[in-house]
Amino acid sequence: MSSQVLIASNRGPVSFTMADDGALTMRRGGGGLVSGLSEVARDTDLLWVCAALSHGDRGAVRLAPGGRLDRAFDAGPVRMLDIPPTVFHRAYNAVANSTLWFVHHLLYNTPVTPQFGMRFRREWESYRDYNGAFALALAEEAGPGARVMIQDYHLTLTPAMLRVERPDLRIAHFSHTPWAPPEYFSLLPDDVAVEVLSGILGADHAGFLTARWAEAFMDCCAAFLGARVDRESRTIIHDGRTVRVGVHPLGVNGEALLARAAEPDVESNMAAIRHMVGDRKLIVRIDRTELSKNIVRGLGAYREFLAGHPEWHGKVVHLAFAYPSRHDLPEYREYTAAVQRCAKEIEDEFATEDWDPLILNVHDDYPRSLAAYRLADVLLVNPIRDGMNLVAKEGPILSRRCALVLSREAGAAAELGADSLLVNPYDVSGTAAALHQALLLPEEDRAGRCARLREAATALPPRRWFDDQLAALE
Ligand code: F6P
User: Fold this and answer.
1) Which of 92, 152, 177 for mutating ligand 1's site (highest number of atoms within 8 Å of CB)?
2) How far is the CA of 270 from the centre of ligand 1 (A)?
3) Any residues with CB less than 8 A from the CB of 166 and at least 6 apart, and which?
4) Atom 8 of ligand 1 has which residue's CA nearest to it?
């Protein structure tokens, strides 16, 4: 049975773990992209093509005829690709997460990295193979004239590859990350830069979370491909084809989030947090321990705030939830250790018998995160750079009175900036001052800002975000 609407992404809606006796347990896939798209997939007739990420996933694929999990497990229509582990590792860890992610989030320590040598060339070859495996699977599964929605930096080459296989399809690509400005994108070897851009331009529609990232993409297409870019109509002419560029600022399904956050497990987490911190003010952050999230500078800002404002000692607690992420990469393991070191230093410097100024938690716990949102007086979201940042949108939906301290480099700043306290993420002292200002914000001001933030955060929930892109392919 062929499909008329297909999604392709690295991470899929389900993942599997394998016990020692070989038994498989199925779970919901993780991450922002997956939760947004899962909501859409639940009530749309579509096929989701994703990669097997783990030993457990590979075990599941091998039991599923043609990799179609819906035929072997009680999952929605999913085809999981069993890409050889070495190819997958190079494509996902080395190219997608250590190269393209670093380029778009401006994460390199340029005196030392990147170094594009022979090793990178092998990795790039794997990235091509991995993208090719997706193109092939999509070409097999798509019905005539079907619409195919390809997601993110893992799959930049798939649109062009798929077009070669199936020129009848209508293809969209969506970037959930920022897009690098040409001066930084030019760190990539020239041929790789060209391949990435022309790969995406194999689509009919290239989507971005904000106008800023869409413009950076168009700038790169003009600079590296010599493509004809019309910024007014947001179109790019390349290789005799016209590609439309769309801006789709993904938001949150407010009703569903509020309903989830009203469940008993969240209520009991709220009680536990209150028991721990008493009636002290709460500064909350919730992130993956991800280099771009800028957790170390965030802790530095809190430390500076405490050092400069002894009047707040004993009256405020910082709840920092920093969940594990990408621990296959040494940079991420080191970063987690740096976050823990910083937290320890703050405790050593300021903690007293009856006051713990900082509670750092590195274990993923969704109900506890929702509880923290509901209790927050201040929400700190200070990424170096971020495609959107849904934490900044979820917080004001769940708290009627939290003040949002937001990095001007987060995509969310385009919609939420006017009602946030905007900060330069590198400016630790500026962030410390914003935390102080946020704590002092009067109640009426908080409520007014929160209401407007909520409206902006729910303006484009996942369902409409997806439908708009489908419609753009008509
Ligand atoms: O920010 C884009 C995004 O695809 C997120 O949706 C997701 O959380 C992340 O990047 C990918 O992370 P991971 O490597 O854990 O899949």
Assistant:
1) 152
2) 28
3) 138, 139, 142
4) 31
Handedness of CA 99, 103, 105, 109 (dihedral sign): positive
**Residue 273 is inside which H or E element, if any?**
helix 264-277
Can you tell me which residue has the tokens 């690295």? Answer: 10
Across the beta sheet with 403-407, what order do the strands follow? 358-361, 316-323, 281-288, 378-381, 403-407, 421-423
Pairing of strands 170-174, 142-151: parallel
51 alpha carbon – ligand 1 mean position (Å): 14
pTM over 0.70: yes
Q: Which two tokens stand for residue 170?
A: 């209508």
Residues with CB under 6 Å of ligand 1 are 11, 31-33, 97, 152, 176-177, 325-326, 387
Per-residue model confidence as pLDDT tens digits over 232-283: 999 999 999 999 999 999 999 999 999 999 999 999 999 999 999 999 999 9
d(C-alpha 357, C-alpha 347), whole Å: 7
Burial class (CB in 10 A: 0-12, 13-18, 19+), 62: exposed
The amino acid sitting at 21 is D
Taking only the tens place, the pLDDT of each residue in 75-131 is 889 999 999 999 999 999 999 999 999 999 999 999 999 999 999 999 999 999 999
Ligand 1 pocket mutation, candidates 10, 33, 98, criterion most atoms within 8 A of CB:
33
The residue nearest atom 16 of ligand 1, judged by CA position, is 11
DSSP single-letter state for residue 168? T
Q: Which two tokens stand for residue 431?
A: 């962030």
Burial classification of residue 233, based on how many CB atoms lie within 10 Å of its CB (0-12 exposed, 13-18 middle, 19 or more buried): exposed
Q: How far apart are CA 299 and CA 297, in angstroms?
A: 5
Tell me if residue 192 falls in helix, strand or coil.
Answer: helix
Taking the C-alpha atoms of residue 114 and residue 111, their distance in angstroms, rounded to an integer, is: 9
C-alpha 274 – ligand 1 centre gap (Å) = 31
The closest-lying atom of ligand 1 relative to the alpha carbon of residue 97 is 14
CA of 31 relative to ligand 1 center, distance in Å: 6
Pairing of strands 24-28, 14-18: antiparallel
- DSSP 8-state class, residue 173: E
Task: Examine residue 167 and say whether the peptide bond preceding it is cis (omega within 30 degrees of 0).
Answer: no
